[in-house]
Amino acid sequence: MNYLIEKKVKNNIYIYEGISYWDKKTKKSRQKLKYIGRKDPITRETILKKSKSTPKTADEFGSKYFFEEVIKQLSIDELIKNSFPQLYQEILQVVLFQASESKPSYLMEYCNSNDEFSKHYSSQNLSILFKILGKMENEIQCFTKDWISLNKIQDSLFYDLTSISSYSKYADIVEWGYNRDGESLPQINFGILYGNTSKYPLLYKIYPGSINDVTTLKNIHTQLMVYGFKKFTFCLDRGFYSASNLSQIYKEDFELIMPMPFSTKNSEILINKDISSLKNMINLNGDTIYCDTFEIEIDDKKYFANIFINEGRKLRELDRFSKELAYIEENIANNSYNDEKLAYECVEKIPGIYKKYFLIENKENVYRIEKNFESMGDYVNKMGKIILITKSNNTKKKSIIKSYLLRDGVEKVFDVMKNEINENRLRVSSTESINGRLFINFLVLICISHVTKIMSSKDLFKKLTINELLMELKKLKIVTMHEGTKYLCEMTKKQKMIFDKFNIPYPKIET
Questions:
Q1: For residue 170, what pLDDT is reported?
Q2: In the chain, what are the domain boundaries?
Q3: CA separation for the pair 444, 441 (Å, rounded)
């Protein structure tokens, strides 16, 4: 017969079940006690002992597994192991965390339930890792060379430079310079070379904050020649455009694609040229584009200006522009004012980019806000147009415009680095630590670029953003029971679709 026993130990009351049984050795009836719980000291309710068959933890698994497979597909794990045989496991863990969590590395110790793991990747230990890694310049170059060898065939290379602000007072590389984010902080310049064919970042360079864009480009060119690149095209953004920059680039042995700002004297002439004849017509991504090439001189050097007019884009821009103007005119610009101050206050309510398309007219001390047709005409004349500078006239026009339009990948890479992995302000104390941390970020950028590449090719962006994809994968969890067994939660239809699109096998857990 079973019965309950209460035992009081200090202020706690424990409950046991008394179980009678027959002892074969002594040939007597005996009792044993089985702990079943305790009583709450306030409510006196019985709190049962947790069963070993109940779940102990449920840990996120899907996003980490996803990036483990991405790293294998890219062979990054093997390249890191070859270049950093003593540190490759630590490097991979930090890369996996930043890629799967979209969080900076210093949060690793707070985002893992395993105490030993958290201690190993504490902020202090990570700082030591970054400093050691930052000193291993030869190993970093070895990895870069091997990575480029896997992605060597490129028809054009995109290079861009961004500023990363820093709070560091002791890193020599952190200097005051032109801050592209408009922040009043010293900075470093972080340059990324991005392959048009591979759609991956190929290499990165770190420069002091005061180093200008052209100097970085020449250094990248020298490094590429060492790595075996012979003929390639640099596709740059407007930030590189100036007569002095072009003069320095002109003598370098590479082709160039660079947009010409509309504020230059050459562009004022070129923008008004009529190139809309059938012989200049091509089709690109479903849009009709007119293009023609004109020889020009910049600082006594010969270049070729390739003018492109995208008729579809022009119509879309014009439609959006006219709707915005109509809204402003209906709500703001149709009123008359007897006080000039009130009229100017009304103009200030117009969104900033549209202010210049309106002006105040005074007729017999009656002030009206009217359209500025001259400035509107200049803007409409530029719609759908772009002028791309090249050093030679040998490249097909379609290839020129396609290369430039694809450079959006570089902008997305920088956006990922500054927003998704939260490295817009560095909080490190030495140049070595900065170098180590940015090498990790470079590896993360490669992984995110792969995700972007596959999502674009499989039309996944119509269904999901990158963050939404990761959030969906985070729902896939591993449940650990109290007795130690583990099982994987049922996969959703959307999770299976993601693994299928990325050619990643469904995960399995060995029990």
A1: 45
A2: 3-49, 259-392
A3: 5
User: What are 481's two structure tokens?
Assistant: 């029971």
pLDDT in tens, 340-360: 778 787 777 777 788 888 888
The dihedral through the CA atoms of 87, 92, 97, 102 has a sign that is positive
Rounded to whole angstroms, how far apart are CA atoms 257 and 269? 20
Q: What token pair was written down for 330?
A: 């209906």
pLDDT, mean of residues 283-310: 87
3-state class of 356 per DSSP?
A: helix
Q: Is there a contact between 153 and 400 (Cβ–Cβ < 8 Å)? A: no
Burial of 79 (0-12, 13-18, 19+ CB in 10 A): buried
Where is 211: in which H helix or E strand?
none
DSSP code per residue over 214-272: HHHHHHHHHHHHHTT--S-EEE--GGG-SHHHHHHHHTSSSEEEEEPPTTSHHHHHHTT
Read off the tokens for 36.
């079943």
Strands 201-208, 187-195: parallel, antiparallel or unpaired by DSSP?
A: antiparallel
Q: Give me the amino acid identity at 245.
A: N
pLDDT of residue 287: 81
Rounded-to-integer distance, Cα 174 and Cα 138, Å: 22
When the pLDDT of each residue in the chain is averaged and rounded to a whole number, the result is: 78
Q: How far is CA 311 from the centre of its chain?
A: 31
Give me the phi and psi of 110, to 5 degrees please. Answer: -100, -10
Residue 463: pLDDT above 80?
yes
Sign of the four-CA dihedral 13, 18, 24, 29: positive
State both tokens at 42.
């306030």
- CA separation for the pair 369, 244 (Å, rounded): 42
CA 153 to chain centre: 24
Q: Provide the whole-model pTM.
A: 0.67
Nearest to 104 by CA among 441, 468, 473: 441
| DSSP run (H or E) holding 486 | strand 486-488
SS3 for 82-121, per residue?
A: HHCCCCHHHHHHHHHHHHHHCCCHHHHHHCCCCHHHHHHC
Task: Note every long-range contact of 3-10, with CB atoms under 8 Å and residues 24 or more positions apart, other chains counting.
Answer: 4/36, 5/33, 6/39
> Is the confidence at residue 77, as pLDDT, over 50?
yes
